[in-house]
From TrEMBL:
This is L-glutamate gamma-semialdehyde dehydrogenase. It catalyses: L-glutamate 5-semialdehyde + NAD(+) + H2O = L-glutamate + NADH + 2 H(+). Pathway: Amino-acid degradation; L-proline degradation into L-glutamate; L-glutamate from L-proline: step 2/2. It is an enzyme of class 1 (oxidoreductase). SUPFAM superfamilies: ALDH-like (SSF53720). Keywords: NAD, Oxidoreductase. InterPro entries: Ald_DH/histidinol_DH, Ald_DH_C, Ald_DH_CS_CYS, Ald_DH_N, Aldehyde_DH_dom, Proline_metab_enzyme, RocA. The keyword NAD applies. Its EC number is 1.2.1.88. It comes from the Bacteria. CDD domains: ALDH_PutA-P5CDH-RocA.
Amino acid sequence: MIKIQEYRPQSFIDFTKEENVQAYQDALKKVRAELVGRHYPMVINGERVDTAEKLTSLNPCDTNEVVGTTAKATIEDAERALQGAWTAFESWKKWDMDARARVLLKAAAILKRRRLEACALMSIEVGKNYAEADVEVAEAIDFLEYYARSAMKYSGFGSSETTWFEGEENGLMSIPLGVGVSISPWNFPCAIFIGMAAAPIVVGNCVIVKPAEDAGLIAGFMVDIMLEAGLPAGVLQFLPGVGKEIGEYLTTHAKTRFITFTGSRAVGLHINEVAAKVQPGQKWIKRVIMELGGKDGMIVDETADLDVAVTAAVQGAFGFNGQKCSAMSRLIVVDSVYDDVVNAFVKRAGALKVGTGEENANVTAVVNQMSFDKIKSYLEIAPDEGKVLLGGNATGEANGKQGYYVQPTIVGDVKRESRLAQEEIFGPVVSVIRARDWQDALDIANSTEYGLTGGVCSASRERLEQARAEFEVGNLYFNRKITGAIVGVQPFGGYNMSGTDSKAGGPDYLANFMQLKTVTERW
Ligand SMILES: NC(=O)c1ccc[n+]([C@@H]2O[C@H](COP(=O)([O-])OP(=O)(O)OC[C@H]3O[C@@H](n4cnc5c(N)ncnc54)[C@H](O)[C@@H]3O)[C@@H](O)[C@H]2O)c1
Ligand SMILES: N[C@@H](CCC=O)C(=O)O
């Protein structure tokens, strides 16, 4: 077994220190000189292969800027990648678990050295500010480090415990599934992208990775690191392309053994449906692991520390412009403290600066035109569904730059059953809902079809214990923000329509990508 230190999450960079801000700005210059304008081809069977058509990544904070391009895979490319991955599987599955884990550890080491480059690239490609980009790259390093260590417990015959039985040897072997497809979103294009690839790979599977259309460059950057770390040809097939085309082809394909998907509820449910249909020649029931959207609520009751609650609300709602599945999009406040909480929340959110990721603004542009239009459509109905207390406009401009800018928006007295209170908007828009009392607040919190993150700000032990038992979410937080789960510390995944609760960054996550074989030998 490899001798390595116990897993410890990465610490975050302190951007209150001038030298760290300077280092970030130097990285932005380096990335602008070396990565912006670059083209990433596909990687199939270890070869870089290009396509006639390309996908273009735009800077959302300055839509006049093309950040770079990737190949746009065709159905034929997808077929070749799938067949090639099955060939690679024949040898990769026989690699020693430690040897596979070593590739992840090496990739983590390279990423640590290139940490600020990865951050800077995301500031330009998806508009993350410094802290948001840093937290994400730290998470990507953590996934690699954590899954490498987790894999070791599945090494060898009898790696899972069975009960002793006289006269026999019994053992439970964990074996990889085969070739799967990993389809990722643009909002965590480094951490989720690499976490969903590294986990199946380290336990012996081969994976076709299909990044989101808006974030192909950071995905290409991460693939380069995995290859530099020594991943053999065909184990990780990089297939940038359009979800509705190659994503659809691969999820429907008879030779796809598993699908790991993170993205919207609509696409996730569609994939779940097509994957369930058995295709001619298909030998297995496809395993589907999916993490979807959220409409996450945080309750503030009359016993809460107001300052703690408002800080948690601002961080949870507006971090990366509310473009997190975990974002606090519903603030549920009990009537007796409603005015105090909401006034303080509006005041604090009103001080947030809107601008580019590169300028390290608090709130930057949302990712693309479709997202901008969708958020705008919710802002249009906001005055009918509540009282707009802050923002309310999709300006499309900030500090002279054209981009997908939306003002931080707070809508008060939103009705609990309204669209604003029930549908995932995925932008800097918060619905505040007035509850009669604590029990009413908990009922409102549980009144959506989602169940990803949730929070309670309260000093009442009794209420916290009730929420621990009754708040229906996969990740529940007390007296802090409801975003920012750390690998190994807060395993992440949702209930109900938020997903299959696979708990990325948790102790059992790798089991999603293995099948168990019980072997008995009578002596
Ligand atoms: N629960 C979580 O852990 C988690 C984490 C991040 C994001 N999300 C969710 O992701 C969503 C935002 O991401 P998005 O806009 O990229 O989501 P999306 O569903 O639009 O796209 C996700 C991926 O699916 C692909 N895709 C689209 N149609 C497809 C099809 N028919 N077949 C196969 N693949 C297809 C896309 O190309 C993309 O790579 C939000 O709903 C957010 O809550 C959830
Ligand atoms: N894991 C992240 C959210 C990922 C979804 O967008 C968090 O905990 O905030």
